[in-house]
Amino acid sequence: MRGFTEETATEIVLARLSECNDDRLRQVMTSIIRHLHTVVREVEPSEEEWLDAIQFLTATGQMCDDKRQEWILLSDTLGVSMLVDAITNRKPVGATESTVLGPFHVEGAPDLPHGANISVEGKGEPLVVSGRVLGPDEKPLEGAELDVWQANPEGYYDVQQPDVQPAMNLRGRFRTRANGKFQFRSVKPCSYPIPTDGPVGRLLSALGRHPHRPAHIHFIVSAEGFQPVTTHLFVAGDPYLESDAVFGVKKSLIVPFELETSDERATLLGVTAPFYSATYDFKLSEAD
Ligand code: BEZ
Ligand code: FE
Q1: What is the mean pLDDT of the chain?
Q2: Which of 191, 199, 256, 281 has its CA 20 to 30 A from that of 60?
């Protein structure tokens, strides 16, 4: 029998996986065990520190319910979600880049007509977002769907404030017209902190990290025969673009939100001046 020592620990534990019939599970667990052992050898935690770590993980699980996913928040703030995204959504050059889904997407947002306003409560600075959905050859895609959601001007999603905001506030699904064009009205998004009242918030604070995300609007853009993209448009000039708490910013997704003052343009677009406007063409790649 081989004794379990600092030197033999990893090989002894890995040997126990030899009966595992699931090749992928064995591969994943081998890697996790090897890396965990490496961390312990490198850090040499005291038993007290190891118990602290276990208590942190316990609290992370206890914070989760059907409205709050602290594990995803941990994955997001450690850059793991964006790394998985980068690996699984490698896009051809020119296709719109993806970013994190985040925890606030809701299935079944209302189907809205071209030009509709997604702000049910109507608070905030008016905004018009427009653009096109294109295929790889820049061909406009008719009937593509844009599922859109954003936080209100105080930085909260409707699902975070069910007693304050109307249901489905700042959410909607739009379809592109024959020329691939879409347009909707909203209010200018602002930067906001991710939830900080749990273990992830305490960890960020202990690490001297801020919890803010730069102002953005979420999109899932899809069309039959094309790869859907889960992404955001970020407001150019936001002070948190370089330090997004969840590492979601990509340069190609930063868009100027222009302040417009023309009453004539405002009337045409169904808003009142002054208002902001943002334009972006989403480019989808062919489905595999
Ligand atoms: C969001 O943008 O909605 C979000 C993304 C990751 C973590 C928390 C919030
Ligand atoms: Fe968000």
Answers
A1: 96
A2: 191
Contact of 235 with 257, CB cutoff 8 Å: yes
Residue 44 in domain: yes
> What atom of ligand 1 comes closest to residue 104's alpha carbon?
3
Count the domains in the chain: 2
Determine if the pTM surpasses 0.85: yes
CATH number at residue 111: 2.60.130.10
Residue 178 shares a structural domain with residue 208: yes
pLDDT digits (tens, 9 = 90+) for 95-126: 999 999 998 999 999 999 999 999 999 899 99
Ligand 1 pocket, 100 CB below 6 A?
yes
Burial class (CB in 10 A: 0-12, 13-18, 19+), 125: middle
Question: Looking at the CA of 152, which ligand is closest?
Answer: 2
Q: Is the pLDDT of residue 91 over 80?
A: no
Measuring CA to CA, which residue among 175, 176, 158 is closest to residue 167?
Answer: 158
Give the tokens for residue 14: 């890995």
Residue 39 is part of which domain span? 9-74
Whether the Cβ atoms of residue 151 and residue 87 lie closer than 8 Å to each other: no
Q: Domain check: are 185 and 257 in the same one?
A: yes
Same domain, 50 and 102: no
160-200 residue pLDDT tens: 999 999 999 999 999 999 999 999 999 999 999 999 999 99
User: Which ligand 1 atom is nearest residue 216's CA?
Assistant: 2
Residue nearest to atom 4 of ligand 1 (CA): 102
Confirm or reject: Cβ of 104 under 6 Å from ligand 1: yes
CA distance 120 to 169: 5
The answer on 236 and 124 residing in a single domain is: yes
For residue 81, which atom of ligand 1 is closest to its CA? 6
Domain boundary among 74, 96, 126: 74
